[in-house]
Write a structure and sequence with these properties.
The complex is a heterotrimer of chains A (273), B (331) and C (389). Chain A has 273 residues and is mainly α. Chain A has helices at residues 5-32, 54-94, 100-109, 119-128, 135-159, 163-171, 176-184, 189-205, 208-213, 222-231, 237-270. In chain A, helix 5 (135-159) packs antiparallel against helix 8 (189-205), helix 6 crosses helix 7 and helix 10 (222-231) packs antiparallel against helix 11. The longest helix of chain A has 41 residues, at 54-94. With 331 residues, chain B is mostly helical. Chain B has helices at residues 3-45, 62-69, 71-102, 109-117, 124-134, 144-147, 171-178, 193-220, 223-232, 236-247, 249-264, 268-273, 285-295, 299-330, and strands at residues 163-164, 191-192. Chain B is globular, with a radius of gyration of 25 Å. Chain C is of the alpha+beta class. Chain C is built from 9 helices and 21 strands. In chain C, the strands form 4 sheets. Chain C has a 6-stranded mixed sheet, sandwiched between helices. A 6-stranded antiparallel sheet of chain C has the order 13-12-11-14-20-21. Classes of the chains: A mainly alpha (273), B mainly alpha (331), C alpha+beta (389). Chains in contact: A-B, B-C. At the A-B interface, helix 1, helix 2, helix 3, helix 4 and helix 5 of A face helix 1, helix 3, helix 4, helix 5 and helix 8 of B.
Chain lengths: 273, 331, 389
Amino acid sequence: MTIRWTRVAIYGVLSLFALLYLMPIYVLAVTGLKSFQEVRLEQMWDLPSGLRFDSFRDAYRALDTNLMNSFKMVIPATIISCMLGSINGYVLTKWRFRGSNLLFFLLLYGMFIPYQSVLIPLVKTLQQLHVYGSLWGLVVTHVIYGIPITTLIFRNYYTNIPTELVEAAKMDGASIFGIYTRVIFPLSLPGFVVVAIWQFTSIWNDFLFAVTVTSNPGIQPATVALNNMAGSFIVEWNVQMAGALIAALPTLIVYIVLGRFFVRGLMAGALRG
Amino acid sequence: MNINGRRLLNLVTSEQAVAVALIVPSVIAVGVFVYGFIGWSAVVSVSRWDNVRPDYAYVGLDNFRDLFNNFRFQIDIRNTVVFTTFFVAACLGIGFVLAALLDRRVRGEGLFRSIFLLPMAVSFIVTGVVWRWLLAPRAGVNILPEKVGLPAGAYGWYTDPNVLYVHADSRLGDALHTIGLGFLADPNYGIPLAMISVVIAATWQASGFVMVMYLAGLRAIPDELRDAARVDGASEMQILRHVSLPLLRPVTLSAMIILGHQSLKIFDLVMSMSRRGPGFATDVPALFMFETTFQGNHFSHGAAISILMLLAVSLLVIPYLFWSLRREARL
Amino acid sequence: MAKVVYEHVTKRFGDVFAVNDLTLEVHDREFLVLVGPSGCGKSTVIRLLAGLEGLTAGNVYLDDLLINDLPARDRDIAMVFQSYALYPHMSVFENMAFGLRMHGVHKDETRRRVTEAADALGIGELLKRKPAQLSGGQRQRVALGRAIVREPKVFLFDEPLSNLDAKLRVQTRTELSKLHERLGTTFIYVTHDQVEAMTMATRLAVMKDGILHQVGTPEDVYFRPANVFVAGFIGSPSMNFFPGKLAGTPDEMRIELDGFQIRLPVERSKRVALFAGTEVICGIRPEDIHDRAFVRLEVRSQVIDGRVDVTEMMGNERFLHVIINGQKLLARVDPRTRARAGQDVSLLLDLDRVHIFAADTEKVLDEIDLPELSDAPAAAAESSTHATN
């Protein structure tokens, strides 16, 4: 078999880029595994002399309540967000009414606004609802601001479900809820996967709302805690890197394990425009 | 209409009513939390609220005027334009190249795809922290050449205070002057080199997503089309240029919108990576707004910045939404 | 000169042999149709010629030049695809001009060729439109035009009519035949529809499972099928088949079937005598089975009786689905026949048109003579023997 130089070039370029993309993760991991003494800017690239999990231990100790907070907040928010998006998408595609397109447009716009522009009234409203400063306040926030994107994804996904299925169910006597539970919901799994992964990642990684809505360090999610750690006086790089890695671990795992479903969903047009 | 007909009509309208009722909570929520709050911000932006105690007295467009005359804000505008341009261009370029390469039936495509997509999983905060280290002047990328025996890099990356701009006394500066655009030969219209570092970090994070979008787009192009082009005499590069790329225009547009609106709002990354940078070289409106509002208590000015950000994003997004929904209706 | 030669060509996809040791010569200027059921490899055969697939083994020659490793764009071949493959973002003009552009043809020459071809195809008014604005038939002409302007050595067609409605298909068939005559270029055409194949081809190549079963003129393939597959594939409704055994003396060979016998005429008996005792498959086309009451006298025939299961009135003939000793048979008889469902009927088999294939290899054992060359005496009556029920 002759060596096709174009193939070599393709693999070469891809591998080069792969290395570049992995570089930061390498640094994260390697630094996290070093002891404090070993961590020097000049030796950034060197492999650790031995696997020390002390940094991870310290980082975990510093972050563990915050990690818990993140989980306690992200999981309900993701689940509720998915359900809302699904129902909205269902209504907008299979039960169109006059103005439903305009409504969708107005909903969708909410996805693009800079969240800075709503921070202050958000705080005040959450205070009125007595959820300011708590994780539930964050859950409410993320659910509501997640409505546009989850509705978009489900709407795009549901347009691919033929209306004949819904019509057949109607003729069989199913109600609007029956059609959802019997026809739409069972077919929604790929949509849920994409939305769940997307929301889990966005909400887990969010910083702006987290830092605005919660002020008590004991309540704050991991992203805020990490940023505080990074800004502190004594720069323990190894702990910071370990902390960053730990904070990123849940989403990294989600992507590594469920990544192909996410890509499949994206490629099936879940996020067109 | 007989009894059965009327019952049927009731059923239809009542089911429609239920449908509307199901979506009403979302509409109300978004109505309040998005439109209501924006309205509130707009009100504050034309008020006098300058310290901890609210003050809603109307002051017209004074706050906006103050902002445009504010040195830091002017730099922010320049920085946003520079960042958006380079970030979007880099993501589109790299994303497309990676997608085009991966589309060639590569073994291990899944692995490569996961590697390029992985940065998306990480929060901007983490990205900022890591790249701050990677591009630190006395470490990271700069000391990498030493590993292979080359002298270390000495570039300042995000600590570089220099701005690349057309000097008024250069040839280009003269040319601009003759056509009445002499004012462009000024640092205010230049490229802050420190921003490049932020662009690198942000591109690392977002290009995987663009890659996936382009890959999906390429896969959606029927194979027959490319076969026809091959038989017609096109080389693989020509096929990319004349057949694939034009058909990918919707993807490019969508990607530009998604990237563009994110870059206008960028906050987390800058916050954790370089803050305002030397001489505000990496300052962005979102950062300015945050400091103004939550640290300076200048609520009205903060609100004004956020309204301006909103307007900028709207300029980008509303035409796109229109075009997209109209195209769907036509199909 | 545009002669194409496939020499022991094989194409493998993983474990599957899409094309298996194909040797075929396509003569200059002929209209060769590759026909066979879906998945038989016919599309792969032309894709190999176009350069869209690489060979696993063997050689392909175009005008005596070995083109195995030549990239598609240098092969001077044009192809019309099944779904036309028109570039959706380009106008009709740009679609047709694309190939010429890629080959560096000058703008004026391109314009000349495109407008000429478009006018000839009746799409001259549509040059500025995009494919989405055209009907199926118009798109097909654009695809044709795109190939024609290239003035290639060979035209390849990959089932181009299958997306058209029936009426348009028939119309386009004749137009393609006329086009072939006008251009005088070699056409290689792929289809699964044997009617298309029979009507348009100068020669057919019948394929199944990657293997070439027979190459020949429509008459060759229809009247002298090389094996059971070709015999059953070509001709619609398809040939009737019965398993049996050859027996008898050199002058009086017969085929012993389940429940009846076919006695062969003398010339044929002599030819098949050496195969006495062999298991065979005997085949006879529906149109060679007649209603006894309405048959021409000069046919050498044998009577068999059976019971009619279903009849279908076609207008110019009637199809009789008959059951004879548990075996099914289809006959196309004179429409005046009295036979109806549930009744008995007496049929005549045309003995000169009985095909005999070896049961083990399914290859033909004794060919029949083509109609014009038949020696059957004009007025000789039936050497009829009543079938035993």
